[in-house]
Write a structure and sequence with these properties.
By secondary structure, the chain is mainly alpha-helical. The protein has a single domain, classed as Metal-sensitive repressor, helix protomer (Methane Monooxygenase Hydroxylase, Chain G, domain 1), CATH 1.20.58. The protein contains three helices and no strands.
Length: 109
């Protein structure tokens, strides 16, 4: 019975993730059109920022899906799965750290 619940959770995440990616794809196409129409740089940059934010949220969902799947599978498994999970988490978290550092730790400059 646990397997069915896990499969449903993965499917739920997958649907949400795919829908978000489709929206991002549409935003990217919109940006391409804006560039072709020589829209203002300001408008284009605002849309680029929206895409960046959408990608961040999607990354979080993918990581959450991955964590749920791995943590379910981790108990009683070989060390390589644990190392793989920790490596992926560290990579994602280092991106967040880099962004935090690049914004001066969240402080105004």
């Amino acid at each position: 019975m646990n397997i069915d619940k896990e499969a449903m959770e993965k499917t739920g995440y997958d649907k949400i993730i795919v829908n978000r990616l489709k929206k991002i794809e549409g935003q990217i196409r919109g940006i391409q059109k804006m560039i072709a129409e020589t829209r203002s740089c300001s408008d284009i940059l605002i849309q680029m920022s929206a895409v960046k934010s959408a990608l961040k949220k999607t990354n979080y969902l993918i990581l959450k899906r991955y964590a749920n799947a791995c943590l379910t599978d981790i108990s009683g498994t070989e060390d390589s799965k644990v190392e793989d999970f920790l490596s992926t988490m560290n990579e994602f978290l280092s991106e967040i750290d880099n962004e935090f550092d690049n914004t001066n730790g969240g402080k105004k400059r």
